[in-house]
Amino acid sequence: xxxxxxxxxxxxxxxxxxxxxxxxxxxxxxxxxxxxxxxxxxxxxxxxxxxxxxxxxxxxxxxxxxxxxxxxxxxxxxxxxxxxxxxxxxxxxxxxxxxxxxxxxxxxxxxxxxxxxxxxxxxxxxxxxxxxxxxxxxxxxxxxxxxxxxxxxxxxxxxxxxxxxxxxxxxxxxxxxxxxxxxxxxxxxxxxxxxxxxxxxxxxxxxxxxxxxxxxxxxxxxxxxxxxxxxxxxxxxxxxxxxxxxxxxxxxxxxxxxxxxxxxxxxxxxxxxxx
Length: 275
Prior knowledge:
about 280 residues; Jelly Rolls; Arc Repressor Mutant, subunit A; 2 domains; four-stranded antiparallel beta sheet; globular
């Protein structure tokens, strides 16, 4: 195959707490997390990824999902690009919508579902979000339909997912508390109470990535929140701990598949619709 293929569209969703993207790409996304729930559908090709239950594969027609804070990645499963449409939902929105349902504990979704009924609901919701003036009643009905089906048929038992060791938990807490500030591996290992080698091995085994990669994806999430809150790209880059705006842009595209500038344009539209 020739050069890199990567087409990403950040849609201008008019619903508060909802974002949507369409992608067609051969890009391999590194292991990262999101602040939101993700629910989408594979439209072309196939993808393999790491998830809350380990390695999984998805193909055209499958519903793909992820949880807030879940470490995952995404790679083409073949030599060809794959396409998908993904909707990100604020956890607070999900909690409100499911408040009246008889659901025990926190919602943890499966990474892949081969469910034609759910797929149709996701497609309907996406069609509403794509409209320049969405029918909010129809969009909200589609959203609730998706969440009810996921909550009742496509959950994962939290108890079945692995927990990090005390040392790795300490390292994660330090990185989450101030990801925008620099820290050496020696300092982080000292905080965790283990050697540098033990920390690297434990982090790779239990988190699925390295401490540095974890910090980068955490900084990207911080920058994304700052941009959504109205900060300029330069200010967001500085406050999130990046060397400069170019560094932010490279990491943003690597993790989210879209530039921070295009993301800001979509968010600005949503703010205008809300007001």
